[in-house]
Write a structure and sequence with these properties.
heterodimer, A: alpha+beta, four-stranded antiparallel β-sheet, 12 strands, 20% strand, B: alpha+beta, Aldehyde Oxidoreductase, domain 4, seven-stranded mixed β-sheet, six-stranded mixed β-sheet, 18 helices, 34 strands, 26% helix, 27% strand, binds flavin-adenine dinucleotide
Chain lengths: 333, 761
């Protein structure tokens, strides 16, 4: 690992000025950053440690009844947050399924959203892959069981690693991005960058910008949400399939559904096809299965991951059923 | 000079008297009737507190004054020739003290990604890592092959252009070195036949009432011990080398260093006070050990050289892969009539992938034909791994047996009963079936109606009793009564340290706290290598004998104090008394205070067993219950009932830990672990413990284990080994349970969701 400076600003302005230094990066929990440094993928000259900044740990109500969550809240804190039950439960469900208890105690919301893909070619410095500025995607013809099932035609078949982002996109959350000059709110969906937009980028942040907070819109009456991560192991494991959904359900009928797939594409994958099947319909096990099939009909599996599409189909159907209050494991319809 | 003894031998409480001649100064062997205080009981590890508090120092924890850190520059190519090495940049890097090539003569070949090319020593680990990257190596890159099936093709790039000789390690089954034909990347076949030729075996199988055929594949599993490989090497002067090593054999390691550096063995000392697991991959000086000692010599400083997790996966050894073609034939009653098995497996650039032993040794079958061939690939070398060849072979053989049973409409346990007459095995079936509730199983497959289906299955273990001879155990009794037991044997985590204290305390009638165990140091006398499950069976008879000799000495010291002859003295509860008259007694310390000269030492050697080197099977059976999610393909192992034997149990507590560990590692092998090499570059894509998946606490099933006591009287303790047999049947039992749950047979390890779904489709 390279040598680096370590800065410990006490407030946001200090942090923003400290990060102006060339080669400087923010360090929150440091879970992803240190992994990348140890693997020689990045070699920042200065780490700006932002965990001491109280303003990044605040939880507050927004004017329109939404919730602003400071970017430095830990994943463990999010998993336990009382305010996040009911309509917003997909978020604590995602937080509670992320990584391991130890990591959740350290890792932050902001860091989780900015983390890099777990693609094993990206994370190995021997592979100069397209996402690192190289000329090819090694996964495309390589070991790609865990790689993208959707949006995998743009020269990088990585999948987005952030479980939190899946839930946040389903809930329509925004990020407050602040720089020395200004502040803007951007949806999580727009924050993450697909290879077709810019193959090397993971998110839109520019140097000198910090995520200050995550803003959840006020929940609507009868809104519900659900998140589930399917693992191969029972102990800590990355997802083979992960799904977050949210909609308004009155009299069993689903309105304005969002169906978001994680570990599926370079960014959270929104299945408009599944949403179209659900919209205006009464949620049943059958309907959930139909929506799942519709979602996966768009998949374009790589050489080794067609069977993972089948796992996905089962998980999508289950998550829709669970969200709708139907037991997917029950016999019959 | 011998004496006659009569002892009770047998299985559990089914005992018979046996007359035996034993050497005159041997203790009477412990038998089935002996009521012992420690042996066969449950004693917590003597070093347990030190281990969980971090006070125990492993090789990894060694820090010596002036110590440097070593690191390798490793090949990024799976096949290449190293043409030149330029050290100039590395030598100028901060903290660097020395850089040395792996081989003196250039050019030399490298045959897998991660093979060692040069070593560097620097003041900090980080400096060494950075400097290793600055070593400029010129490679001539060659064609390579990493997949078993590709490597077997006629036009595949050659991994070796020379004849490969098998290098046996202490973890291998003895007597397996052989010279075999080598054509292309295939070395073999090694043929074992019983009453059938290759030409005959197929027609014999075909003529059977039922047949089972299958092509089984198993993956490469890395040992992934908690403590990685490594040493700290320190030259005390030009001719004396001390090495702290994470090793399964202090003596093999000492011998290696002595040979490599042309030193008398007496000048090399190897210390392994505590050790964080090896599973068969840690014998000898190894590449890092030699490099550490070389770097230490040129820098005149101690050198710490431990692998990191990535290096461990690349170059620390592994369980070879296998591709097994199995054909079994049985008669109407389910009795096996013919076994055919052809296997190819890859131990990377190494040998030893055979899976034939379970086929040859589990069931008595008159007609058998087995071929085993190694296929070389450009991958890290396989090494002995917890019952080499056996979990692989059992995965195939026991699924075949299961298949025969279902074809015949027989209970899978019943077909096993019909194919064995082994008393221990039959007893284990009885106990296991009862504990598991086997009789309540639904004979139908895929009987559950919902998407999540439960199933049960079972499989046998088979292993063998090995031991070495000549190990000297030394006991010293001091004037304050303190007792030291000394031998160089290493405790690789199995608990032998505690067992030694138990034996001495038992024999001398002392409390275990009064026995000090000194092990893990080659200066203390040769001990067995911890491979082949032979540590306990190998060293305990010598230790007991030494304790017995110490007791005789103490009798001599005590006799005049009571005014009787030595034979009339007994020791119990820390006191000496006249046998048959406990009314007057003296404390052990009081007696010891009269030892002439203030201390004495006795040495006893591990001799051949009373029956010589008899081939003995260690049995074992495991029953598994699984839950298969037929929509997601995810398998959960809910429960494992295990019944094992290992002669006379010494410490049941650490024995159960071995069984638990064997099952956990077996579950992990069955469902998760898989060393994955990129087919295009030969790089391992998952060289960590995150994407190389290992069972975690939530993946561990409920485990119920029973050990049945087998008293053979073959030596004074009757102990045998358990480390390996405990992991042999797990994957096979799980595979059979998956079949019972779903009606789909999985021929390919690990049994991941995608394979389950494909089999169900
Ligand atoms: C074994 C393991 C398992 C895991 N499993 C999962 C999982 O199942 N699901 C999942 O989602 N994740 C998983 N993770 C990833 C883990 O959750 C992330 O690494 C972690 O959330 C990163 O958060 P952090 O605070 O440590 O970020 P850091 O490592 O500190 O930072 C990561 C990146 O975010 C930037 N950053 C951090 N905060 C801000 C901010 N406020 N503004 C601007 N930029 C910022 C940093 O500059 C850096 O580029 C796992 C990780 C491990 C090691």
């Amino acid at each position: 690992m390279n040598k680096f400076e370590y800065a410990m600003p006490q407030d946001i302005p200090q942090a923003l000025s400290s990060v102006q230094h060339s080669g400087a990066v923010f360090k929150a929990g440091g879970v992803d950053l240190l992994d990348l440094m140890k693997e020689g993928i990045i070699a920042p000259s200065r780490l700006v440690h932002i965990n001491n900044i109280e303003a990044l740990k605040v939880i507050s109500r927004t004017k329109d009844g939404g919730l602003a969550l400071g970017a430095n809240l830990t994943i463990a804190e999010i998993a336990e947050l009382r305010e996040l039950s009911g309509a917003h439960q997909a978020l604590p469900q995602a937080a509670g399924s992320t990584a391991t208890p130890q990591i959740r105690n350290l890792a932050t919301l902001g860091g989780n959203l900015c983390q890099e893909t777990r693609c094993w070619y990206f994370r190995d410095q021997n592979f100069s892959c397209s996402h690192k500025g190289g000329s090819q995607c090694f996964a495309l013809q390589g070991e790609n069981y865990y790689h993208a099932l959707f949006d995998n035609k743009s020269g990088c078949v990585r999948v987005n690693a952030s479980s939190i982002s899946i839930a946040l996109v389903a809930l329509g959350a925004k990020l407050r991005i602040t720089s020395a000059e200004s502040s803007r709110d951007v949806s999580v969906a727009e924050f993450l960058v697909a290879p077709s937009q810019d193959i090397e980028k993971t998110h839109i942040l520019e140097r000198g910008e910090i995520i200050e907070a995550i803003i959840l819109p006020a929940s609507k009456p009868h809104q519900r949400s659900f998140y589930y991560k399917q693992k191969e192991k029972q102990s800590f494991d990355w997802p083979v399939a992960e799904v977050a959904v949210s909609w308004v359900q009155k009299g069993g009928v689903c309105e304005n559904p969002t169906v978001i797939l994680g570990a599926a594409a370079p960014t959270p994958w929104r299945s408009k096809k599944a949403e179209a099947v659900l919209a205006g319909q009464k949620i049943t096990k059958k309907l959930a299965e139909k929506a799942a099939q519709a979602a996966m009909s768009e998949a374009t599996p790589l050489s080794q991951n067609a069977n993972r599409a089948k796992v996905f189909e089962a998980v999508i159907a289950r998550v829709i059923s669970w969200a709708g209050g139907v037991d997917p494991l029950q016999e019959g319809k | 000079m011998t004496k006659d003894v009569r002892i009770q031998v047998g299985v559990a409480d089914n005992l018979q008297e046996m007359a035996l001649k034993v050497p005159k100064n041997d203790p009477r062997p412990w038998d089935g009737n002996d009521q012992l205080k420690y042996i066969g009981g449950r004693t917590t590890r003597l070093d347990g507190v030190a281990k969980v508090t971090g006070a125990a120092k492993y090789t990894f924890d060694m820090r010596l004054p002036g110590m440097l850190y070593g690191k390798f520059a490793r090949s990024p190519y799976p096949a290449a020739v190293v043409k030149s090495i330029d050290y100039s940049k590395a030598l100028k890097a901060p903290g660097v003290k020395a850089v040395l090539p792996m081989q003196e003569k250039l050019p030399f070949s490298v045959r897998f990604v991660g093979q060692e090319v040069a070593g560097v020593a620097a003041k900090t680990l980080n400096q060494a890592e950075e400097a290793a990257k600055l070593i400029e190596i010129e490679y001539e890159v060659k064609n390579f092959t990493v997949k078993l099936d590709d490597a077997m093709k006629e036009n595949a790039p050659l991994v070796w252009d020379v004849q490969v000789k098998e290098e046996a390690s202490a973890g291998d089954i003895p007597g397996q070195e052989n010279t075999l034909p080598q054509v292309g990347n295939i070395r073999g076949p090694n043929v074992s036949a019983r009453n059938a030729t290759k030409e005959e075996i197929d027609s014999l199988v075909n003529a059977s009432y039922v047949t089972s055929e299958g092509v089984y594949r198993t993956q490469v599993q890395t040992h992934s011990a908690m403590e990685t490989h490594g040493v700290v090497a320190k030259w005390d002067d030009d001719k004396h080398l001390t090495v702290w090593a994470s090793t399964q054999s202090t003596f093999r390691t000492r011998k290696d260093f002595a040979e490599r550096f042309e030193l008398p063995e007496a000048n090399v000392r190897v210390i392994t006070e505590h050790m964080g697991g090896g599973f068969g991959a840690k014998f000898g000086a190894d590449t890092f050990g030699v490099m550490a000692a070389k770097l230490s010599k040129v820098t005149q400083a101690p050198v710490f050289f431990m692998l990191d997790r990535k290096e461990e996966h690349w170059a620390g050894g592994n369980r070879p892969s296998s591709l097994q073609n199995v054909r079994l034939g049985a008669n109407k009653e389910g009795k096996l009539e013919a076994i055919k098995m052809l296997c190819h497996g890859s131990a990377g650039i190494g040998t030893g992938s055979g899976t034939g032993n379970p086929f040859k040794n589990l069931y008595p079958c008159e007609k058998l034909y087995v071929e085993e061939s190694d296929v070389f690939t450009n991958a890290g070398m396989g090494r002995a791994f917890r019952a080499p060849g056996h979990p692989q072979g059992i995965f195939a053989l026991e699924q075949g047996m299961d298949d025969l049973a279902y074809q015949l409409g027989l209970d899978p346990l019943e077909i096993r009963r019909r194919n064995t007459s082994h008393e221990v095995r039959l007893k284990e079936y009885e106990i296991g079936a009862k504990k598991f509730g086997w009789s309540q199983r639904n004979p139908k497959v895929a009987a559950d109606s919902g998407p999540i289906k439960r199933g049960v299955g079972m499989a046998n273990s088979v292993w063998y009793y090995f031991y070495g001879t000549g190990f000297p155990a030394t006991i010293q009794v001091n004037s304050d009564g303190s007792v030291e037991i000394m031998n160089g044997v290493q405790d690789i985590g199995t608990g032998i340290r505690t067992v030694l204290a138990m034996i001495v305390a038992e024999e001398l009638g002392l409390d275990i706290s009064e026995v000090k165990v000194k092990i893990g140091d080659s200066d203390l006398g040769a001990g067995p290598a911890s491979g082949g499950s032979q540590t306990t069976g190998g060293i305990t008879p010598a230790v007991r004998k030494a304790a017995y000799l110490a007791k005789q000495k103490m009798r001599e010291v005590a006799a005049p104090l009571f005014g009787v002859s030595p034979e009339q003295i007994g020791f119990e509860n820390g006191r000496a008394h006249v046998l048959g008259d406990p009314s007057t007694s003296l404390g052990w310390q009081q007696v010891a205070s009269r030892i002439p000269g203030g201390q004495f030492k006795v040495v006893a050697e591990r001799k051949k067993d009373y029956f010589g080197n008899q081939f003995q099977i260690i049995c074992g059976v495991q029953f598994a219950e699984v839950e298969v999610d037929t929509q997601t393909g995810v398998v959960k192992v809910k429960r494992v009932v295990a019944v094992h034997d290992c002669g006379r149990p010494m410490n049941r507590l650490t024995l159960e830990s071995q069984i638990n560990g064997g099952i956990i590692q077996g579950v992990s092998y069955a469902l998760f672990e898989n060393r994955l090499l990129d087919r295009n570059t030969g790089h391992m894509v998952n060289p960590n413990l995150e994407q190389y998946k290992i069972a975690g606490s939530m993946d561990i099933p409920e485990i119920d284990s029973t050990v049945i006591d087998v008293f053979k009287g073959h030596n004074s303790t009757s102990a045998m080994g358990i480390g390996e047999p405990a992991t042999v049947p797990t994957a096979g039992a799980i595979a059979n349970a998956i079949y019972h749950a779903t009606g789909a047979r999985i021929y390919d390890l690990p049994m991941t969701p995608d394979k389950i779904l494909a089999a169900l489709a």
